[in-house]
Amino acid sequence: LSTVENLLDTMAGVKMNLLHLHASDVCRWSVESKIYPNLTNALTGDMGGYYTQEDIKSMISYASERGIRVVPEFDVPGHSRGMLPIISEGLQFCTEGTTQTQLFGDPQNKTLNIIKKLFTEMSSLFTDDEFNIGADETAAKGVCTVQSTFNLEREVLNFVANDLKKTPVGWEEILFDAGAATNSTIVDAWSRHNPGQITATGRRAIDSSSAHFYFTYPAPGGPTGWSKCWYNISETVPAGQEHLLLGGEVSMWTNTYCEINECFLTGPPQVGAPLWPPSADAAFEESVGGMIWPRGFVAAAAFWNYNSSVNPSSTEFTNNIWSLTSQLAARGSKVCPVHCSCNQLTACGKPYLNSTL
């Protein structure tokens, strides 16, 4: 929780006003459920750790005090292996064994009914008007067809809107692959599509372009690493549709910290694996901060005040970013120090953990 609070403090310093909390994936369901307690009780050892319901209430309060909303994402039907601990409740997957990552919308609605119960519980915790169901990177495989995936996603979207009284949100695949997006669904462009293609349908859009705003991998310190973040998110949006573009988003995915590739696939540990165990949480907090900031400051500036005449490599721009970095570091923000490069394991060449040498 302290890592999230530090990120919220830093976000507030640059007017970033929404935390998209990716709360479930192949590794885990990360929020305590009273209905299905084994979702988090099953997280032990190096996989241990989750947010209690009191943690979530505290997080939302902390964010609200800083003018920041918290929108949860519980990713279905893809990226759902974290729900495997409750398969005995009747949850259905498309495939068997180690490939169980995508949920199947079975004709008996066993999967749908479990999702409804969980989303009702989670919706009562997260007070924001938006509720993100993910819906990215699905495929026709095993018993799952494009039609069965469409049906499940559409049922979930309608449930979020009509029963939970929330605005549904999903990644671009919900519109362009399965085609399940309702007219009220907010669509997040990240990979093969852009906001203009979304607003052209009359829907609201978010720009999370992976080419500009994904911080999964480290970048060199200074303009070489941050220049791509100085990007006009409204570039593809036609005149008259700008009101449908809600803003931009940077994404700090932690794939490269997994002890096991993507947390369940066979393969060597990822580069940041020494920081994966709960015992390394303090170092992980430093590392994540160093991966996001200061390039996140450049993205925030572009979201609010993009100007094509500004050169993000100029001396003036660079000095301003270094100055902001120093000011926020002095306030306690975990950032990559000025004139330095940071990666998962080191800042300015110095390891976060001695054991990473």
What features would you describe in this structure?
33% of the residues lie in helices and 11% in strands. The chain has 357 residues and is of the alpha/beta class. The strands form two sheets. It has a seven-stranded parallel beta sheet with strand order 1-2-3-4-5-6-7. Strands 8-9 form a two-stranded antiparallel sheet. β2 (69-76), α4 (110-125) and β3 form a beta-alpha-beta unit. α1 (2-13) packs parallel to α10 (281-292) and α4 (110-125) runs parallel beside α5 (146-162). The longest helix has 17 residues, at 146-162. The radius of gyration is 20 Å and the shape is globular. The two termini are 27 Å apart. The mean pLDDT is 96.
Topology:
Elements: H1 2-13, E1 18-22, H2 38-41, H3 53-64, E2 69-76, H4 110-125, E3 130-134, H5 146-162, E4 167-171, H6 173-176, E5 186-189, H7 195-199, E6 205-207, H8 210-213, H9 223-226, E7 245-248, H10 281-292, H11 295-305, H12 315-330, E8 346-347, E9 350-351
Parallel strand pairs: 1-2, 2-3, 3-4, 4-5, 5-6, 6-7
Antiparallel strand pairs: 8-9
Helix pairs in contact: 1-10, 4-5
